[in-house]
Write a structure and sequence with these properties.
With 180 residues, this protein is an alpha+beta fold. It folds into two domains: 8-54, no CATH class; 63-178, no CATH class. Helix content is 41%, strand content 23%. The chain is built from six helices and six strands, in the order ααααβαβββββα. Strand 5 and strand 6 (143-151) form a beta hairpin. The radius of gyration is 27 Å and the shape is elongated. 4% of the residues are buried.
Length: 180
C-alpha cells in the first residue's frame, strides 16, 4: 500500500525484532505490514542516527545532519580576521608557522550535529587533558623544517628550548646562507 504512514513504534519494533534475531525478515515484514524497501531505508536511518524517523521540524527549518567540526571555546573570529588582514602584507618566504598537536585516548566528541543548509555544524566543548603525546613543528614554504615530540603536554621551558635550539638555529643558518 504506497504512501501509507507507518508509526515510529512499529518501525522501532521491526528494528528490534531484526537486530535481536527473534524472527526472520520475511516474518517481520508480514507482521509490521510494510515493504522490504521501507525496512532497509529505516534500518539505514536507525544505524546512522539511532532513531527510525527523520526529525521533520528541523528539516522544515532548513537544518540537515552534518559532520560536526570541533571548535575551541577560546576562538575569537574578530581577532582571527584582524590577523589575516595583517599577515597578507608579508611575502610568503618570510613566514614560518609553528603548530602543536596532541593525541590521547581520552578525548571523545560527537561526530555529527545539525546546522542550516550551507553552514558547517559546530560544537564547542572542553578539550580533555591527560597523558598524551604532543608534537610541535615549524612549517615553511620549504616544508617541515623543525619538529619535536614529547610525552605529555609540552611545558614552557621545553617550548622555549625548541624555539632557541631548533627554530632560531634554522633561521640563522638560512639567513646566513642566503647572504653568501
Amino acid at each position: 500500500m504506497p504512501g501509507r504512514v507507518v508509526q515510529a513504534q512499529v518501525k522501532l519494533a521491526a528494528m528490534n525484532l531484526f537486530e535481536q534475531d527473534i524472527l526472520p525478515l520475511a516474518n517481520i515484514l508480514d507482521i509490521v505490514g510494510f515493504s522490504e524497501s521501507m525496512f532497509w531505508c529505516t534500518r539505514k536511518l536507525w544505524r546512522e542516527t539511532g532513531w527510525v524517523e527523520k526529525p521533520k521540524k528541523l528539516e522544515h527549518l532548513g537544518m540537515s545532519r552534518k559532520k560536526s567540526k570541533k571548535v575551541a571555546k577560546e576562538r575569537n573570529e574578530k581577532v582571527r580576521l584582524d590577523f589575516m588582514q595583517r599577515i597578507i602584507e608579508y611575502p610568503v618566504e618570510y613566514l614560518g608557522f609553528l603548530d602543536e598537536t596532541s593525541k590521547n585516548d581520552h578525548t571523545y566528541s560527537q561526530g555529527y550535529g545539525r546546522a542550516k543548509r550551507g553552514s558547517r555544524a559546530k560544537m564547542k566543548q572542553e578539550f580533555v587533558r591527560g597523558m598524551r603525546l604532543t608534537a610541535t613543528g615549524l612549517l615553511t614554504v620549504d616544508g617541515m623544517l623543525a619538529n619535536r615530540v614529547v610525552e605529555g603536554s609540552m611545558k614552557h621551558p621545553d617550548y622555549l628550548d625548541f624555539i632557541e635550539h631548533k627554530v632560531v638555529q634554522i633561521f640563522y643558518h638560512v639567513s646566513r646562507s642566503s647572504h653568501l
